[in-house]
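CHAIN AND CONFORMATION:

***
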Amino acid sequence: MAASPSGTRPRVVLGVSGGIAAYKACEVLRRFSESGHDVTVVPTAAALEFVGAPTWAALSGRPVASDVWSSVHEVPHVRIGQSADLVVVAPATADLLAKAAHGQADDLLTSTLLTARCPVVFAPAMHTEMWEHPATRANVATLRARGAVVLEPAEGRLTGADTGKGRLPDPGEIFEVAREVLIRGVSMGSTAGLTDLAGRHLVVSAGGTREYLDPVRFLGNRSSGLQGYALARAAAARGAEVTLVAANVTLPDPAGVTVVRVETTAELRAEVVAAAGSADAVVMAAAPADFRPTTVSDAKIKKSDDGSAPGIELAQNPDILHEISTHRTRSGSVIVGFAAETGDATGSVLDLARAKLARKGCDLLVVNDVSGGAVFGSPDNEAVILAADGATVEVPRGTKSALAHVIWDQVATRLG
């Protein structure tokens, strides 16, 4: 939890507009409250039709601010926004986005948005047709141009039988992205440059691929996908359009991120190469299998009576990082690779990593010393970032989110 500039608990305003997904904001509120944030809930009149004020008050431990006429002597329509360290609106309906984009102030929430000088995060939720309407797209573009973080809605079941893009992202993931925005905003001391990756399309790969031997067995690795997901979440918090190609990862989808799921290295290569064509940067945090069986049995391979093991012939998989680094379809793009090294008789971890950087042709290489299984599945990480221009950045042990932001700092610098 980042401290408020005033040294107190971070002050978060949770705005709730009138959509059916309003009940999911209760989980967002619970996450903030239980992690030590001081939360003021500002629901619209329509939101109170879905979830009543007693629920918000009980979960936040504070009175609910619902209209400009209560506690008038405290001037709530100005004070709440002025004192906030972060404003999160979840769900943000098409109506709320339109009012925010055009500067309307006809209730307490829209007035708060006008007076806030802190980071603002909108988590839209509406029917697909409303999200895709040119008016909504223009309003979203306007808000993003002003520095607000407007997350992309998720795809899935909507109200009734409808399915499509417009679903509120997972509440836990909204909290994670919002916390990223808050921490970065407090550390920077300003909203200037907070969304430095806005307008950029970034591609991240995560997880570990599987190469099947038969219908139930495969060759794989220990990659959990945590670092790749942290990279995707951090990029979304900085305003980017993010495509996450996830190989066999069971984590919830980061809010505001388009997730493409794959299993094998061939599938990973196809999706990454396709997405890289329109990407400003690609970060290959996934761990593709270097080899695959030359044949795959249609039936489960049985044990032999004499105790002998079947022979497995392997073929080398394509080198995805080398391919997208040496055959770039977008001028000026930045390619980042990862190297999980242990060192051996031929050289140290950094010796092997520098050779890999030159061999792959990427711009940056994030080097992890994985001796003894370090890093895999851990919430923390430490790394050395090597650059093709000779620069070296050492990142001390910290959260994978912290490392993700250092990586994006390096990418942002090279994107200009």
Observations:
- The two ends are 30 Å apart (CA to CA).
- DSSP finds 14 helices and 19 strands in the chain.
